[in-house]
Amino acid sequence: MNHKQSPRRLIDRFGRLHNNLRISVTDRCNIRCFYCMPADNVEFMPKAHLLTFEEIERIVRVGTTLGIDRIRLTGGEPLVRRDLHELVRLLAAVPGIRDIGLTTNGILLDEQAQLLKDAGLKRLNVSLDALDPEIFKAVTRRDGYERVLAGIEAARRSGFSPIKLNAVSVRGLTEDQIVPFGHLARETATVVRFIEFMPLDADGQWQRDKVLFAHEIISILESEFGPLLPVPRKASEPRAGDLLPVIGGASTQAPAQDYEFADGRGRIGLIASVSQPFCASCNRFRLTADGKFRNCLFSLEETDVKTMLRSGGTDEEIADLMLACIAAKNEGHEINTANFIQPDRPMHSIGG
Ligand code: SAM
Ligand code: SF4
C-alpha cells in the first residue's frame, strides 16, 4: 500500500492530522528522574512484551499509508535498548519517512552518537534539567552528569546540529538554572527548551504549584538578558496528498514556542504544556514499547496492536486500528480542570 493511493489519513473528530509517531522502545532507564519514575523497585515490562524492531518497522510502514512521515524514538531511555541504531536504520529506509528524531538523557550518547548519525538519525534532543551537578543528582537520583556532557560533545562531533536540550521546569529547582542555561544558549549552538512539569510522575507528587510556568521563565531571562522576541513559527511545507492544510495555515504543531534574544544571539524554547496547552494543534500519535497505541500522553485508554501483530493481523487491520484510536481522541487534556485524572502509566512507561 502506498500512501498516495490511500485517501485515508489519521484525522480526528477535530480535524487534526496526525503525521508524527512517537515510538517508545523501552520503559527501562539508567536514571530515575523524580517527575517520571519511582526512585526504586520499578517493575519493568518483561522483554517478551516489547515490540521487536521488525514489528515496529511494520507499524511504521502501515502508518506511512495513513500519513505518518515523522518519527521520534523515546522511552524510558531509548539508548538502553540494545542496537538501537539498527532500528534507526530500518525506519530510515521506510518510504515516506522524512524525519527521525530521538530524545535521550544522553548518558550513553558518547558511545552511540556516531552510530546513530550513520544510521540516519536526523534530530537529537538531550534532556538535561540542570547545569549544576548537584541539582542534576537531586532530580535524577543517580550519577551521570559528566557522561551527559560527554554525550552532548560526542553528538556535536558526529554532526548533530542544532542539539536541543530539554529541561523540565519545576518550581524550587529550576529557577537558578535559567540564567546559566541562557548563557549556554547564547554561547553555543544549543537550543534550550524548558518543559513545564506535567502530571505524569510515578509517585503522584505533581501539583500545579510545583510547575514553574513559561511566563515566569521568560521574566527571569528578560531581567538578565533584555527582551526576548518570539520567533514566528515556520510555514509548513505543502505535501502532495494532504487532505487538510495544516491547522491555522502555518506549522503551529511544534509544541515549543521559540524566542530569540534581542541581539540575535541564542534561542530558547518554551513548552507550556500546562499553562498554554497546544492540544488544538496536536499532531502526535504514540506507540508504547509493549505495543499499545495511545492518542494522547494523558489518555486513559489505549489500543492493543501487539496482539494483532502476533496473531496474523493484516496491514489493513492494523491501519483500521490506528484510525479507530485517532477517531477516539479527545479534544484536549484536562490538566487545568477538576475532571483531570492522571493516567496509570507514568511517563517512562508511556514514552515522553
Ligand atoms: N529518557 C529520555 C529522556 O529523558 O530524554 C527519553 C524519555 S523522557 C520520558 C522524554 C522527555 O520527557 C524528557 O525530556 C523528560 O524530561 C520529559 N519528561 C518526563 N517526565 C516529565 C514530566 N512529568 N513533565 C514534563 N516532562 C517530562
Ligand atoms: Fe529516564 Fe528520561 Fe524518565 Fe529521566 S525522563 S527517568 S531519563 S525516561
List the helices and strands and how they pair.
Layout: E1 20-24, H1 53-65, E2 70-74, H2 84-92, E3 99-104, H3 109-119, E4 123-127, H4 133-140, H5 145-157, E5 163-169, H6 175-187, E6 190-196, H7 214-225, E7 228-230, E8 257-261, E9 267-271, E10 284-287, E11 292-294, E12 303-304, H8 306-309, H9 315-327, H10 347-350
Parallel strand pairs: 1-2, 1-10, 2-3, 3-4, 4-5, 5-6, 6-9
Antiparallel strand pairs: 7-8, 8-9, 10-11, 11-12
The site of S-adenosylmethionine has 20 residues, from strand 3, strand 5 and helix 10.
Question: Descriptors for this entry?
Answer:
alpha/beta, single chain, twelve-stranded mixed β-sheet, disordered N terminus, 28% helix, binds S-adenosylmethionine, 352 residues, binds iron/sulfur cluster
